[in-house]
Amino acid sequence: MKIRAITIFFVSEDMDKLARYTDQLQNIKDEVVWTKRIAFPPELKDLDRKVNQIPTGKGVIYSIIHRRAKGELRSIADFLSTDKSFYASVLLNDSKYIDDVAKLVYSLDPEIATRVAILVNEEFLTTPYFPVGSANTINDSLSSSLIYVREFEENRAERVLAFADEYSKKISKEIGIRYLGIDASLSPWMEESTGRLIENHSGEKMFSFGQLYTVASINKRIFELVWRLKITPIGFSELMLPVAEDNVLMERVREGSLTLSQLMALTSVCVAGLDMIAVKRDIELYKKILRDSMAIQFTKRRPYGIRIIPSTGEGEIYLKEYGKIPEIKII
């Protein structure tokens, strides 16, 4: 088990306090903590000045831009190009802005696209998962997320969730801010695969009929765990299928047994959304994906995140942080 992220939600105007939070996160040396993060509020005012005061280079990453789709989107890539520790999200809750959002996705450099998410939801989301995680809170506060796929498979999830909850409370107390809870999502990292988890639970290779039920059952199990432990779940708290972060998912995409339509079907049963998928650069296709994503989100009434990596149509794309990512087939 790893604590995937310790995340501070920063709503204060005091940039000296931001520097202090960054130092406090940097000073967490426990090996169980993988990443340290700070999320800024939606629609941040005086962005240029604040960005210049962010203490980068200290092993902390920041979600700094959270804009509504009706706002100005063209400058997002410019901001993110200044530092690879910066992330951004766009809130899409009205179909009349689909064209604008599709143009943004189409325009992104593939490396920057990994740090931009489209959030289909009624409002901005407070979660430690970047890029969508924003400080949509009243006070400075803290939450965490985990990588615990192996423990979930081995029926040890209850113990590690309880540990993460207590550990996060301790860190929150040491920093001196409110503790919000845990995003209990099951998220993969390469060999620790949620794709494999689905295959093991269903007894069949992805994608097979019956696996929608498998995903729904896993999400039900997550809910039961946090309810029994009296953990406050925030954000998504669902199974996640980010293709470029999961070796089994990448292999299934590469061999063509998991296609875009099949992956989207899985998201209808409350997988968090279409995440980290390489899709050929086609603006009309992106519009269709956004329309269908809005329809799914409206039906299931859960936050839905999208990260599309525009690709060339040549079968795969290379990213410095991830290596070779297979392009998903559009069938």
UniProtKB/TrEMBL annotation:
<dbReference type="InterPro" id="IPR007841">
    <property type="entry name" value="UPF0210"/>
</dbReference>
<dbReference type="Pfam" id="PF05167">
    <property type="entry name" value="DUF711"/>
</dbReference>
<protein>
    <submittedName>
        <fullName>DUF711 family protein</fullName>
    </submittedName>
</protein>
<dbReference type="InterPro" id="IPR014537">
    <property type="entry name" value="UCP027893"/>
</dbReference>
